[in-house]
């Protein structure tokens, strides 16, 4: 990724979904893995909404929490480009605060 990716939660997916996003720009979403099912996963995002992630062939969701960089499809699923395991414990209220701050002040985070 050559530039910052906006942090989102489940309620912000529509804002970044194609064709709403100018070019299908990547987003970053953090969540708790609720279910793995073949080529997809369901995560609980920081706002407690559930998001379906279509996994890349290299996906390795091996911990309870993950951060996914991907593109939002029209059906509001996220196509994973890459991901990072975030451990077994993560304060999702702090993740939600980070989402809200990056949305409120995008210039601070290099997203303008």
Helices, strands, pairings?
Elements: E1 7-8, H1 13-16, E2 27-37, E3 40-45, E4 50-54, E5 65-72, E6 78-87, H2 92-104
Parallel strand pairs: 1-2, 4-6
Antiparallel strand pairs: 2-3, 2-5, 3-4, 5-6
Mass-distribution shape: globular
Helix/strand order? EHEEEEEH
Strand order of the largest sheet: 2-3-4-6-5
How many helices does DSSP assign?
2
How big a fraction of the residues is strand? 35-45%
The profile of the biggest β sheet is:
5 strands, mixed, barrel
Global structural class = alpha/beta
> How much is the average pLDDT?
92
Q: How widely separated are the two ends? A: 16 Å
Helical amount: 10-25%
Q: Quick one: how many beta strands? A: 6
Rounded to an integer in angstroms, the radius of gyration calculated over CA atoms is 13 Å
Which parts are unreliable, with pLDDT below 50 for 5 consecutive residues or more?
Answer: none
Description:
- It contains two helices and six strands; from the N terminus they run βαβββββα.
- It has 112 residues and is of the alpha/beta class.
- A five-stranded mixed barrel has the order 2-3-4-6-5.
- Strand 3 (40-45) and strand 4 (50-54) form a beta hairpin.
